[in-house]
Design brief:
Strand content: under 5%
Number of helices: 5
Distance between the termini: 15 Å
Number of domains: 1
Radius of gyration: 15 Å
Helix content: over 70%
Shape: elongated
Structural class: mainly alpha
Order of helices and strands: HHHHH
């Protein structure tokens, strides 16, 4: 859960900063990963946003070069990505350290936590 006494670099509540990590996908994930050096909750969400949405962006980009089948797969990935984006923002706002199955383990390993 969110600890209102925890400090963030920007002086914003950590759950709000965590939501902002997902706001523009991997771009804001990267920004907050670079800005926030102390708060583990925000860093976790920033790294998870970066890994998840950069990965989806790259997959989508590659699939775009595959005629017909790639476009169809992209049409399936896009709405699922939007749902995932909303779920992650809601979980972050509620102060949950919601860990995605594969990406979450990768993120924890990279951050050296839990």
């Amino acid at each position: 859960m969110v600890d209102e006494n925890k400090n963030t670099v920007l002086g914003v509540k950590e759950n709000i900063e965590a939501v902002l990590c997902y706001a523009l996908g991997w771009i804001t994930g990267l920004v907050f990963l670079l800005l926030e050096q102390k708060n583990e909750f925000v860093r976790f969400h920033a790294m998870q946003s970066l890994a998840t949405f950069l990965g989806l962006f790259i997959v989508s980009l590659v699939l775009g070069f595959i005629p017909f089948l790639g476009i169809l797969i992209n049409l399936l990935i896009w709405p699922l990505s939007v749902v995932l984006w909303i779920v992650l923002m809601v979980k972050a706002y509620k102060g949950e350290r919601y860990k995605l199955p594969v990406v979450g383990d990768f993120v924890e390993k990279q951050l050296g936590s839990k």
